[in-house]
Write a structure and sequence with these properties.
Length: 125
């Protein structure tokens, strides 16, 4: 009986401590509701701006070594348009939130796609 009485305050303290860790519930019209696909803003197409040559890393990043500016005609277009460019040098197409290795090739053109499969960025790498 003595053990049961002394365990009660300890258990009560543990419950109160855990209750204090619970975050307050959000308030507002969309609280807890998942965002729909139409609510998500699509990324705007852009060409990566030129960068200055800096030290660091295994290879210096030089401005537009792959001549990415030659392919701006496909910005905002579906990924299928990349095949019509007749690119003879190395290139990579990276899907929305896709996995990309970290091997940097300054001569390779990289086309990045948005969630809808359209080209939103072109740069070297």
């Amino acid at each position: 009986m003595l053990i049961r009485i002394s365990a009660f305050p300890t258990a009560l303290l543990a419950v109160l401590a855990l209750a204090a860790c619970n975050p307050a519930s959000p308030t507002g019209p969309n609280s807890g509701a998942p965002a729909s696909q139409t609510d998500l803003a699509a990324p705007q197409p852009y060409l990566t701006p030129e960068t200055s040559v800096t030290a660091g890393g295994l290879q210096k990043r030089e401005p537009d070594t792959c001549k990415a500016v030659e392919y701006v005609s496909v910005l905002g277009q579906p990924a299928a348009q990349i095949a019509t460019l007749g690119i003879t040098k190395p290139y990579r197409v990276v899907e929305w939130r896709g996995v990309e290795d970290q091997v940097y090739n300054p001569q390779r053109v990289v086309f990045r796609l948005d969630a809808r499969g359209n080209v939103y960025n072109i740069d070297c790498g």
